Amino acid sequence: MSKLFLYVKIIDGVEFMSIVISASIIIFFDQLSKFLIRINFSQSERAAIIGDYFYLTFVKNKGAAFGILSGRRIFFILITILFLIFIVYIYKNELRQTASAKLAVIFLLGGSTGNLIDRVFLHYVTDFIAFDLFDFYQLPVINIADIFIFFGVVILIYQLIFSVDRGV
């Protein structure tokens, strides 16, 4: 029986390491992209990708989307740490261990940690991807981490709503 428990621990360790390594890859590319923007752009400088609709820029975001709650760095650091703990708890205790749940956790851990690193070391989050799709509404400037957080939340919501009945 003790060999069975050892085997289960090894599988849990491998699962954990695959999540950590995958999230670390997201963090690496997020931090690399932000670094490249910081060294190649001055603040608010723009480089058009598709006309006036899609461009790169450098924004120091000291708040949430649109700079909401700007200057609340410690608040965002604490919320992010609590969110990371919550995501790990949900994954281990509430979600069915599926590929989509694992992907959601990887995306959320990688994206949240990427922005957390910015907040801790730079005191702001580097945002640089901008879409102006409508003349009357400017979308918030985002970064790679934000994209992974968005898709992680979408997958997690799907998992929470539909996994009970369908086993997806």
Give the helices and strands, then pairings.
Elements: H1 2-40, E1 46-50, E2 54-61, H2 73-93, H3 99-122, E3 125-131, H4 144-166
Antiparallel strand pairs: 1-2, 2-3
Helix pairs in contact: 1-3, 2-3, 3-4
What does this entry look like structurally?
By secondary structure, the protein is mostly helical. It has one domain (2-166). It is built from four helices and three strands. It has helices spanning 2-40, 73-93, 99-122, 144-166; strands at residues 46-50, 54-61, 125-131. It has a three-stranded antiparallel β-sheet.
Defining traits:
three-stranded antiparallel beta sheet, globular
Structural class: mainly alpha
Would you list the SSEs in sequence order as H and E? HEEHHEH
Mean of residue pLDDT values? 86
User: How many strands, what sense, and barrel or not for the largest sheet?
Assistant: 3 strands, antiparallel
Q: Judging from the principal axes of the Cα atoms, what is the shape?
A: globular
Main β-sheet, spatial strand arrangement: 1-2-3
How many runs of DSSP E, i.e. beta strands? Answer: 3
List the total number of helices: 4
Distance between the termini: 31 Å
